[in-house]
Amino acid sequence: MKKFSFIAVILASALALTACGSSSNKNTSGAPSTGGGETAAAKVTVVKVARNAVPNPPFSFLNDKNVMDGYTVEYLKLLDDRLKEYKFEYEEIAREAMLVGVETGKYDFAANFYYRNPEREAKYLFSAQEYGYSLNSLIVKKDRDDIHSLDDMKGKKLTPMSPSTGLRTLVVDYNKKNAATPIIAEDIDAVTDAESVQWVASGKYDAFLTNTTVFDNVNKQLKLPLKVAAYVTKEPIWVLFNKEKKDLAARIDEVTKAMIEDGTLPALSEKWFSVNMFKSLKDVNDQYKFK
């Protein structure tokens, strides 16, 4: 009798487990779970991102571990982490190829501290939210005291500049307003910051217009007899998208704005530039110590 009772209990337990399993299967085949499980995994879209192959510290460069690093590189990583519906895939290429690739759709967007200008706005979609600023100065030989502003550069020679750079646009705009006495600036397809500072140190050119911290980083290595002569401007920098990528641009704008407001990008700015570039120009000027 005891043996029969034991067998009955085992059978009852087995039936109960089968019933539970059937109930579970019904639940998963019906409406999606609202408990945040893996039954309704979100689709992840791969985004092709173009990055500048030419080292430009502290925005982007290869660190001592031969890994891409810098302000723009970290900004992109933060975006990728927060945008769960996207996965970024990077390719490092020349600056001009970045622009062509975004225009043709080979890349979805590029981040390379781009400035706005009418020609670019006709071809590309710009972010609505800047992700930082370029703090720009004139770099001259230490023994020169005749250059303290762009006005002092009238008739003088800047180092050659790529036509696609935002700083070239600044010079073009300045020369349009001062056509009688323009700043002399040649175009060049590609040039490194190291080449530019060496040209100024040699006396071949009068000044190098560049991001102030870029100069600091380059001259730490070269130790040339140069100085920051004038703090020229603080220009917003933008992400540049293929014109079809409006949804992607809107999401990146949303996340970028949130990272500014929650202090993430100001902290990243202080890490790489030793100043909070998101403050006013006067505040940035007060923070920065000219070398």
Q: Any idea what the CATH architecture of the largest domain is? A: 3-Layer(aba) Sandwich
CATH class of the largest domain: Alpha Beta
Structurally, the number of domains stands at 2
| CATH topology label of the largest domain | D-Maltodextrin-Binding Protein, domain 2
What percent of the residues sit in helical stretches (DSSP H or I)? 40-55%
Overall body shape:
globular
State Rg.
Answer: 28 Å
Number of helices: 10
Strand fraction? 15-25%
What are its keywords?
D-Maltodextrin-Binding Protein, domain 2; two-stranded antiparallel ribbon; 291 residues; alpha/beta; single chain; 42% helix; 10 helices
Any overview of this molecule?
The protein has 291 residues and is of the alpha/beta class. It has two domains: 45-133 and 237-280, D-Maltodextrin-Binding Protein, domain 2 (3-Layer(aba) Sandwich); 136-233, 3-Layer(aba) Sandwich (D-Maltodextrin-Binding Protein, domain 2). The protein contains ten helices and eleven strands. It has helices at residues 2-29, 71-82, 95-104, 118-123, 166-177, 193-202, 212-222, 246-261, 264-273, 281-287, and strands at residues 45-52, 61-62, 68-69, 86-93, 109-114, 125-126, 132-141, 157-161, 184-187, 208-211, 226-241. The strands form three sheets. Strands 1, 4, 5, 6, 7, 10 and 11 form a seven-stranded mixed sheet that branches. Strands 2-3 form a two-stranded antiparallel sheet. It is globular.
